[in-house]
Sequence to fold (119 residues):
Amino acid sequence: MLLTDLLLALAGVLAGAVSGVLGVGGGLVFVPALTVGLGVPQTLAQGTSLAAIAPTALVGGITADREGNVLRAHLVIMGVLAAVGGAVGAVLALALPTEVLVRVFGAFLILSAWRIWRN
Fold:
């Protein structure tokens, strides 16, 4: 249990740091930590990650806004549509076979890593 708690704490700190520094979702850290590190099924890892990202995004967004790094004119429409997209995506993730979901997530990680490396 202590090792699990330690891994979760480390994943939380790392996800927050990666989100804040790179502006990417903490799911890039949370989902692999849960699936690979703890053996949690993909659907549970993604759902847990989505719920855990809410406070990360809120704190990071507030911090960025205080520094003047938020386009407030775009914030509402992006937030509303992201919420709709999140709901649709969560339903789709639950409908997909686990093997497909794992591969799609893996492809997303590879594409994200490539784009970050390229830039």
